[in-house]
Amino acid sequence: MIEKCMTLKADLRSFLDDEGNELALTEQAKTVFKFLTKIVTSVSQVNYSEQSFSPINEQPLIDVDLKCNTRADRLSCTGNIKAKNFTIDIIEWHCNICEAAGTISHWQGSLWDKHKPTLH
Ligand SMILES: [Zn+2]
What we know:
By secondary structure, the chain is α+β, with helices and mostly antiparallel strands. The chain has one domain. The protein has one helix and five strands; from the N terminus they run βαββββ. A five-stranded mixed β-sheet has the order 1-5-4-3-2, covered by helices on one side. The longest helix is centred in the first third of the chain and has 19 residues, at 27-45. It binds zinc ion (ZN). Zinc ion binds at residues 68, 77, 79, 95, 97-98, 100. Zinc ion (ZN) binds at residues 68, 77, 79, 95, 97-98, 100.
């Protein structure tokens, strides 16, 4: 059965052990996990300072170098994934073609969080 409106609410912690390392995942979970961490890496790389975090609707939409069909096997959608910070700690992503979308929480401070405090 194919769900029409797919929203994947992912908590990065559910893929990790207490030390923040990747759990032994099933092939299917691994595929999803790779997809999610790629989004986290891309979004957290964008330079912003938390002090001047702009309103949510002004957050830039980021082109993640990721095809929609990489989030699971046997998908044929060739859409590209766009993502942005929905709130400061939740990343929202969606496909630019189909209705696939989701959120990622608890990614901050993970191995894939590329957001480094700016040192001046
Ligand atoms: Zn798609």
